[in-house]
Amino acid sequence: MGELIGLVAVAAPFLMVFGIVWIGSQKKLEEKRIEATAEMSSEKAAQYAAHTAELEQRVRVLERIVTDRGYDVATQIEALRDTREVEGSDSGVPLEIAKKEKA
């Protein structure tokens, strides 16, 4: 029994140091995990905000088309389709090389 008490008395400081180091490393790991989650959340929020702004702009255009009586609705819709095709292509503005100017 006396040997066990001596062993515990010698091992206790080492176990305490090990426990303190382990708890400190777990705390740092949890802080990094929280920071990573916060960064991902802020990036997602920025993406959602950009997407929302784009959708709001599209709604404004559609509202303007519907409420303006002076414009031809079909012409406006076709113009939007043409714009979307240009935005979707790689070149931007189509070049009509086949049509040459006559001087």
From TrEMBL:
UniProt-recorded name of the protein: Phage shock protein B
Native species: Pontixanthobacter aquaemixtae
Top-rank lineage group of the source organism: Bacteria
Membrane-crossing segments per the record: 6-24
Keyword Transmembrane: yes
Keywords: Membrane, Transmembrane, Transmembrane helix
